[in-house]
Specification:
alpha+beta, D-amino Acid Aminotransferase, Chain A, domain 1, 2 domains, 9-stranded mixed beta sheet, 4-stranded antiparallel beta sheet, 8 helices
Length: about 280
Amino acid sequence: MEIAVIQDKVLPMAEVAPAYLDRGIFFGDGVYEVLRSYNGKIFALDEHLERFAASLAKIGIHGVDIEQIRSRLLSAFEQADIANAKIYFHVTRGSAVRNHIAPKELKPNFFLTITELADFTEQKANGIAVCTFPDWRWHRCDIKSLNLLPNVLARLEAGKKGCEEAILVNEAGLITEGAGSAFFAVTGKALQTAPLTSNILPSITRKYAIKAAGQIGMEIIEKCLTVEQAVCADELFIAVTTRDIVGVVRFDDKIIASGKVGRYTRLVMEKFAGYVR
């Protein structure tokens, strides 16, 4: 008899709930999105759904109605009634007995949560510390997949060092991005960040940070930085959906410039705040 054991309970495979057989658990076989609301209004919903649809297409998950997801999300958001919410959802290829080859008739699984967003006011005011970590991720980070173990390990190591974020460095010694954020450096009046390639997530917040910088007259340079260049920059900051723009004041135990959130970082913050208003 084929059986499964869930904690201490033994049961026939035929009685195992589909949630335990989700390919997202077995293989990370799915994609996800995270977005947020400001004062009861969801920000950049269309752009997040477009990116989500692109991720689904890239890994060949079909039969997902994006408009149905929009409807579910908006209905759940209304029911949750949280003004400043973190909205997470994912779709996996479906549930089946573990096998690398998925049955053709699988129906995708959908999951969504809406939770209260943490307050990062202090971090925005004072900046954060970050540390470097090897970029062990797979080579298709443009797909927002559920395969996040390297990101988790990076963030765990950052936490051990008293840092809020890990900045990933590839084998060539170049910074790609944060474990959960886009990474930027300011030198003079120029803003530099890694270009969008297959190893960089097309971050929505990154897009708006670049837009904000352009509108305040900054030169935009899409080119990878070395660790040495980052340490010598006038200002550093990260951009992420759940925190917006956050200045970096310490990088691998080295104080950046004055050790305070820089002028241009604050200007980008202010411009970005205008978008969400």
